[in-house]
Amino acid sequence: MTQDDTVLLPIMTQSPDSHLDETGGLLAGTSASDSRSVVVAIDGTSGSGKSTTAKALAELLAGDYVDTGAMYRAITWWMLQQNIDVHDAAEVGRQVGNARVEIFASPSSFSVRCNGVDVSADIRSVHVTEAVSAVAAVPAVRETLCAYQRDLAGSAKRRGSAMVMEGRDIGSVVLPDAEVKIWLEADLAARAKRRAAEGEGPVAATTERLISRDERDATRAVSPAQMAHDAVLIDTTFASVDEVVATVLEMVHERMGTNAGGPHVAT
Ligand code: DC
Residue 43 is inside which H or E element, if any? Predict the structure, then answer.
């Protein structure tokens, strides 16, 4: 798979008895256990469908799900709580060690805590959304969270669990050895509409925020948001969640040699 492999959806032809909304539907007969310890990196722009896709995939694989954006948001939430100027990179770097982030890596009940406080809801505020790119650009913040993210992937591997991790640099920097790497993209208008529907505010303001956040994330000096050279680009503008998930699941099976009816390839 190469960067040139843009997947144009819909491309899946599902058999009539395959149901994505029932765990085991598409996995039935394909031996889910063979894909047990697969690591899937799902990166992409804001509003491209990363979370929905990653959660659904993790459910189907009965694996762990990690939203790395939530970690950056949790640290940002704490900085704001402490009245730390998020644009003072040196101060943010000095303080990051005082914010202990912990996540519960379940696709059905993912949650994030900071210094023992469950901040899963608070990190979605506009206040945090507007400040998070600045915090995510600080090298010490990235080093701290990157180490934690690698620990989580290592722990899943040791348990024989699949890991679906979403973010901006998972395939390129955090988990370069991930077996499946996806970059999700969608038109700006579609992304703004999705984010606005999720409660981020009016479409016009959401569009402005998306443009500036994507620009800051893609141009920061350390670990910019970028598609890994061996990731597969999926355009989700006109695709349903089911179609995107089915496409990624098919890639997992191909990569792990667990295609229904196909030969099992030892990895
Ligand atoms: O996916 P999200 O919108 O919750 O991400 C919040 C911010 O964190 C966004 O500005 C991008 C940044 N981020 C990052 O720099 N690296 C990641 N692996 C995940 C998110």
Answer: strand 39-44
